[in-house]
Design goal:
Main location: cytoplasm
Pathway: Purine metabolism; IMP biosynthesis via salvage pathway; IMP from hypoxanthine: step 1/1; Purine metabolism; GMP biosynthesis via salvage pathway; GMP from guanine: step 1/1
Strand order of the largest sheet: 4-3-2-5-6-7
Shape: globular
Keywords: Cytoplasm, Glycosyltransferase, Magnesium, Metal-binding, Nucleotide-binding, Purine salvage, Transferase
Bound molecules: 1-O-pyrophosphono-5-O-phosphono-alpha-D-ribofuranose, hypoxanthine
Protein name: Hypoxanthine phosphoribosyltransferase
InterPro entries: HGPRT (IPR050408), Hxn_phspho_trans (IPR005904), PRTase-like (IPR029057), PRTase_dom (IPR000836)
Number of strands: 9
Largest sheet: 6 strands, mixed
Order of helices and strands: EHEHEEEHEEEEH
């Protein structure tokens, strides 16, 4: 059990509490449920960061859906994207003719989603949209991605928790916080 109010010593500032997160996910689930009535929804979570968000989001959607996973990596153990997106695990499912919703924990440089949108679009889904929990929409920094569903905007700092890691750590923090720069620099 994480004590109420306890903060990890490597965290500089908590940005979004468990309660904030629950409210955002509930709102996103309602938006998606409204938009995907009568559709053939497939949620595709991008491993590994999106697993926590995916687990919560899928339970807040009340229309029929299928799930699948893709693993891509571009950050490795760094706090900056390598710029090269690599597929580590592909989908098990054929998405042709289905309504795909990509589920991401964070949209930062946009390179991961730019690559995924292009790759998945070539498989001829009926539709393809993005649900991202965090959007670091810093002017001039990002590839042109326009997520339809967004949990919240995020400042241009390296954040961890709620699935987000630095070197595979901190994914299990129940809140999102800014990592102290001395931890990764
Ligand atoms: O918009 P971008 O700059 O491309 O960054 C976003 C991506 O970076 C992280 O993945 P990462 O490669 O660190 O793998 P992980 O999901 O296993 O943490 C995150 O989960 C997103 O997939
Ligand atoms: O701020 C971040 N934190 C963790 N993982 C990330 N991947 C892209 N940006 C981030």
């Amino acid at each position: 059990m994480i004590e109420q109010g306890a903060m990890h010593p490597d965290i500089e500032q908590v940005l979004f509490t468990e309660e904030d997160i629950a409210a955002m996910v509930k709102r996103m689930g309602a938006e998606i449920s409204r938009d995907y009535q009568g559709k053939d929804l497939v949620l595709i979570a991008v491993l590994r960061g999106a697993v926590v968000f995916m687990g919560d989001l899928m339970r807040s959607i009340d229309v029929p859906l299928a799930i699948d996973f893709m693993a891509v990596s571009s950050y490795g153990d760094k706090a900056k994207s390598s710029g090269v997106v690599r597929i580590v695990k592909d989908l098990d499912m054929d998405i042709k003719g289905r309504d795909v919703l990509i589920v991401e924990d964070i949209l930062d440089s946009g390179l991961t989603l730019k690559y995924l949108m292009k790759n998945l679009s070539s498989r001829n889904p009926a539709s393809i949209e993005v649900a991202t929990f965090l959007w670091k929409d810093v002017e001039g920094k990002q590839a042109a991605i326009n997520p339809k569903y967004v949990g919240t905007h995020c400042p241009d700092a390296f954040v961890v928790g709620y699935g987000l890691d630095f070197a595979e750590r901190y994914r299990n923090l129940p809140y999102v916080g800014i990592l102290k720069p001395e931890v990764y620099s």
